[in-house]
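Operator note (shift B, R.M.): manual run for Homoserine kinase requested after the automated queue skipped it. Running by hand, logging everything below so the morning shift can see what happened. Input copied straight from the record, untouched. If output looks odd, do not overwrite the archive copy; leave it for review.
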Amino acid sequence: MAVFTPVSLDDLTEWMTQFPLGKPLAIKGISSGIENSNFFLTTETGEYVLTLFEKLTFEQLPFYLNLMQHLAQHDVLVPAPIANQNGVILHSLHGKPASIVTRLQGACQLAPRPAHCAAVGTMLARMHLAARDFPMHQPNLRGLDWWNATTPTVLPYLSNERQHLLRAEMHFQEAFAGSATYLRLQQGPIHADLFRDNVMFEGERLTGFFDFYFAGCDTWLFDVAVTVNDWCIDLATGVLDEARVRALLEAYHAVRPFTADEQVAWQAMLRAGALRFWLSRLYDYYLPRDAHMLTPHDPAHFERILRQRIDGTIPILF
Ligand SMILES: Nc1ncnc2c1ncn2[C@@H]1O[C@H](COP(=O)(O)OP(=O)(O)OP(=O)(O)O)[C@@H](O)[C@H]1O
Ligand SMILES: N[C@@H](CCO)C(=O)O
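Run finished. Output pasted below as returned.
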């Protein structure tokens, strides 16, 4: 269902001559994904992924594609955009923005064990460090400003109790974002959506992070919190799993040591990471943009996680 714009081998014969990839041999639509038209592409030189962007524009895409290129050039495992003979990585196909990136081997690990979480922690820290000198800047477009804009649009759909939780958490996060501790946290380009379905593994070996289309500049700790909230929990309750949390955080800390300020901010940041996805899921649930988003993600999952992070036990950062 996710190929919105079909592409055939015939469409590619002429178009592919600009790339140093040899002749296209096979193309196969990828059925998962809801934002773009994605294809596995086999050429004389290897396996790639061709994406036609259905919503993101020629103006929006350079930040994401250049960030992936920068990270790939710094040995962070991410899909590397393929440049044409003029060095260009953003192209046009059937009137849509298009890119070819290297194909990551393996599959997503939806039931991660501590070893997987450790691999994610190591690569996440390496990614933050490698992105420090990435020259482009874009804010996290799903950050506090977006939360402020979105809260009033979803509030009318919520019970009194949920309205109270959302208002109180927004109030708390506004104060946190203005605090001296927060303002001292290290920032840079972050993935901002590093869920289990955006990382590939072969066995316990991590082969890459992908889907960078929520990336932006924000605190590194927010990226860690979003990641822990998805990788290191009991899925039914949202309760943090100590062994996986420790594995991820210790691996991250070994590459990029956490700071005392980050320790102070940790619980508030786990709450921020939960609020971000509670809000986006509420928005997609009550105000669906597209008819094809037939099964929006369950907002209650992140409401549970948010309540857990407010009231539950939080493992120390390091
Ligand atoms: N570089 C890559 N290497 C291997 N597989 C990839 C790569 N990029 C995408 N895929 C595969 O394509 C699927 C769809 O990609 P993706 O999740 O980015 O979809 P999307 O429609 O672009 O965005 P969304 O995740 O928001 O629906 C992934 O689940 C993954 O299986
Ligand atoms: N990771 C998001 C979906 C957007 O990629 C979620 O689970 O709500």
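Quick read of the result: The domain at 114-311 is CATH 3.90.1200.10 (Aminoglycoside 3'-phosphotransferase; Chain: A, domain 2). The CA atoms of residues 181 and 264 lie 8 Å apart.
Leaving this for review. - R.M.
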